[in-house]
Amino acid sequence: MAYTTINKPNEYFNTVTWTGNGSKITTGLRPDLIWYKARDVIGYAGVVNAIRGDDYFLQTYTTDAETYSSGLLVSDSTGFTPSSVFTTNSYVAWNWLANGSGVSNTEGSIPSTVSANTTSGFSVVTYSGNSTAGATIGHGLNSVPSMVIVKSITNAESWPVYLKSVTTANNYYLYLNSTGALVTSGGDRWSVGSNSSTLFGLGNDGTTNQSGQTYVAYCFAEKKGFSKFGTYTGNGNADGPFIYTGFKPALVIQKHYSGAATEGWQMWDVKRNTYNLTDLNLMADSAGAEFTATARAIDILSNGFKCRGADNSGNASGQGYIYMAFASEPLVGTNNIPATAR
Predict the structure, then answer these.
(1) Which of these, 46, 88, 156, 159, is most buried using a 10 Å CB contact count?
(2) Taking a C-beta distance cutoff of 8 angstroms, is the pair 17, 92 a contact?
């Protein structure tokens, strides 16, 4: 059993759903990262962070640079208030607590601004590129990052993703805005040997480190009983693999990464599906609305998740998948009371 000191995960990560009417949305935490998506219409999706502020957003399904929209999501210590662009449609937002608007960090060869929560292993980082292979950035986690997602905020660039379990070379990466498989050739996005409890390393590719561009990075370190990042192999049937996380997930993101994978980034949570099957799907790499996906559904359980479909997107036989998961309830906390199974 995974023992954790984070007895209340929803103080560090929380999912909310709402219908647009101009009212404040209570998250129960200060949302230093808000990843929002419309459920019933195409578009209306983006990412807002506390360093860049309430008026700027990026979209995970495009290469577009940062966009300005006055008062888009005005956050405070307990939630956020959407602007009038959020009309009567239905929305979901996944919210992470970092540490406010950020502080200067000079531990790397490139200075950065960092908003970090060392308890939950999450930080928002901004920096300016220098086109130097082997450059390093301070991330503020006090733990080696398990996943790093980078995006240029000034130029049209893709979203390279570093995942410790599969990014074993400097030119290995996935794109968050793409359905493509793990890339294992081409320019260096990373300097994986430079990753440490204080730094992550960059190559000199334009998607992560080009002179004249400013970037944002979302950094995650695995925390027992709260977050888990890893891989599994599909078995191609409805009695799919069980992935142990040590907590009841609040959010699970999956991506087929092996071979000639052409499937996108699936997003499942316990607020849109309040019981199993968990089959209401949104895709991080698509502007599309929510859809029911029984053939690729999962069960969210008290100690992990289990694949319940044979679709290539989540459980093709012999194929490799990455995942990231965040807790709604720990399996075992400091009070030693197991979470209730679902």
Answers:
(1) 159
(2) yes
* DSSP assignments along 5-29, one per residue: S-S-GGGTEEEEEEE-SS--EE-SS
For residue range 283-303, list pLDDT tens digits in order: 999 999 999 999 999 999 999
312: enclosing H helix or E strand: helix 312-315
Name residue 144's amino acid: V
Distance between CA atoms of residues 19 and 41, nearest Å: 12
**pLDDT, tens only, 79-96:** 999 999 998 899 999 999
**Please, which pLDDT band fits residue 340 given cuts at 50, 70 and 90?**
very low
Element (H, E) at 244: strand 242-244
> DSSP 3-state assignment of 315?
helix
Largest CA distance in the chain: 52
The CA–CA distances, whole Å, from 263 to 51, 82, 266 equal: 32, 31, 9
> Which tokens go with 139?
């991330």
Report CA 58 to chain centroid distance, whole Å. 13
Phi-psi region of 22 (alpha: psi -120 to 50; beta: other; left: phi over 0): left
Entry pTM: 0.95
- Please name which of 256, 225, 239 lies closest in space to residue 333, comparing C-alpha atoms: 225
The residues spanned by each domain of the chain are 9-96, 103-220, 227-330
Is the pLDDT reported for residue 342 higher than 70? no
Residues 53-86 as b or e (16 or more Cβ within 10 Å = b): ebbbbbbbbbbbebeeeeebbbbeeebbbbeeeb
Q: Is 192 helix (H, G, I), strand (E, B) or coil?
A: helix
SS3 content of the chain, % helix, strand, coil (to 5): 5, 40, 55
